[in-house]
Amino acid sequence: MKVLDFPLIKITIAFVLGIITGYYVNLSIATIAITLSISFSLFCGFYFWSLKQNNCIFLFGIFTSLLSFFIGALTLLSHTENLQKTNYTNCQIAFEKSQFVTLILREKLKGNDYNDRYVALVKTISGKTYDGKVIVNVAKDSSQNHLVIGNCIKVKTTLQRNKSSKNPSQFDYSQYLANKQIYAQIYCQKKEVFVSKTIRKDVWYYCAKLHSRIISNLEKSKFNKAEMNVALALILGQQQEISQDIIQDYQYSGATHILSVSGLHVGFIMLFITFILKLIPNTRKGSFFKLASILICLAGFAVISGLSPSVLRSVVMFSFIATGNHLLRNGNIYHTLFVSILLILLFEPYFLFDVGFQLSYLALFFILWLQPLLKNIYRPKNKLIVYIWDALTVSFAAQIGTLPLCLYYFHQFPGLFFVTNIIILPILSFIMIAGIIVMIIAVFTQPPIFLTIIFEKSIYLLNLMIHLVASLDSFVIRNISFNLYHLAAFSFLIIFTIIWMKQPDYNKLIYVGFSILLTQIAFIFMKVKTESERELIVYNERNNTLISERNGKNIVLYSRDSIINKKNNFKSVNSYLLGNSLTSGKTECLKNCLYFKNNRILIIDSSGIYPAKIQPDILILTQNARINLDRLFLEIHPKVIISDGSNSNSIQRIWKNSCIKKDIPFHATNEKGFYKL
């Protein structure tokens, strides 16, 4: 039975396309509702017609997919919280003046050097009921932080919208938060926070209490802090306290997925439970008992791990797989996979744009689809070699399937990923089993010292092996320029090649050739595009002035004398180079005048000195330039004024008012982002 012959797979694909369309195309709920009503009417009409006329089945299938498409688009819009009237984004005054905001703490995030950070639910703003999620940043000081999940707090503050990326090709943190329905942040001091005596005791509160109890009992067992933080990430998905050095080791070795509780961990748990229940006979009652036990254990693990999105996705996915196995539908594993996607996206459509969701399902799909093909290449007889070969084929199948997406998001490739997976899988299996036992004991009491020591040393060994692989720095390929065109072309190439390898024939070979041609076109298109573009960019750099002038592949960076030799520290420039397939160019001292595309550009810094008798088209103000802009306008008449990130907010407000009086466009990079000419 072909995968696409299963109706729910077609419905899921149409539903996903509807979500994507709703995300990228600005459609109103009214428009979607009208088209959905028309699609539903046609669907019903062709359904009853197909009962009488067999030749209408094809049209019925088309309108079923169309109905699913519009349901997907409507599902996304209905889950977009800032479209709801009660969402706090509609309270404009809260973003302009300080208001009393009442919140309930929902989740603790990884803090930074300055703030403890939480996700909180807005309840009221100045006594009026609102809803929505915000990030609360509580400044750190010498006093202890007594805030817990479930606390109802009140603070007088101004909401601050999430800041979008200010430089080209950078990660858009604002969009990342918007996909999680978080549109603003709050910054406050501990003394400004009023904590209510009543605590909202929901499932999130009890999950947090459970975590605190586990951590407290592990600390009593003298668990080493560094290893305990990794253990909490492996078993509970809590990465807040892991050091940056350890995270970097896992990234460079290609083992980052281990630190995020996902399909790998839930799969281990499911296999372990299945192994324990193996003695129960496969009678009707016995099989049902096994299924119920697996589903209860998976649900319990989701609760213990804090109901994080990655765990919920994996638990739902493996629950469907377990149910499919119970119903003896092992041959329809792809169908089970797609049904789990449909169910998850029905409740959380924004999961589709989560990198973890995309990588989890891609990895599992390619393991199911490609691994059997790779496994048949070589059939060893020795059990040890069989294990190594199975680990290799699983690792390569997952890596091949996720390669285009990993290059697109992370722009690096760990060359020793297969070595990492062969080494860590045995010890990771032991860590998962031992860890679950230790964590369950820690829920009730202090774990036995000997068990804690075994668990701790196994994690130490895992970290050591990861560090040894990561230390082979030359095998990590970084700064790989890979854009959306490359992603599409490489994906088609991989898919068509695997289809041809499974059942080679001439027609499928043509598709492989077409995908190779498409890949070449993507590279040629980007090469032509890169070499034909000319642009000048004023970056948003705090306490610094940075301008790049690009002519095709040649780029010149202009910066101040004091940091002229530190171009490698310009992350904003590195992102720009990577996003445009460029290599670093020469760096020159910043000048007072630049010329670009018949535009005369004048730059004035803190000295306030500039050439006399010059009439610039563009004026760039930097380093809190000591000038009176109203007086300067009597001498020069620029078309645009640009203020970079090196200027203070107070002086920029004065400049902005002067520009408004003269009706001259004013572009502040710390407000609007980089300026491109």
What would you note in describing this structure?
There is one protein chain. The protein is of the alpha+beta class. The protein is 53% helix and 15% strand. The chain contains 22 helices and 20 strands. Strands 1, 2, 3, 4, 5, 6, 7 and 8 form an 8-stranded mixed beta sheet that branches. α15 runs antiparallel to α16.
Task: Provide a short characterization of the protein structure.
With 677 residues, the protein is of the alpha+beta class. It contains 22 helices and 20 strands. Helix content is 53%, strand content 15%.
Task: Give the tags.
22 helices, alpha+beta, 20 strands
Topology:
Blueprint: H1 7-24, H2 29-52, H3 57-78, E1 99-108, E2 115-125, E3 128-129, E4 133-139, E5 151-157, E6 160-161, H4 173-178, E7 182-188, E8 194-199, H5 203-220, H6 225-236, H7 244-252, H8 256-259, H9 263-276, H10 284-304, H11 309-326, H12 333-347, H13 355-375, H14 383-410, E9 413-414, H15 417-444, H16 449-470, E10 476-477, H17 484-502, H18 506-532, E11 534-538, E12 546-551, E13 554-559, H19 571-579, E14 586-589, E15 593-596, E16 599-604, E17 618-621, H20 629-632, E18 640-643, H21 649-662, E19 666-668, H22 669-672, E20 675-676
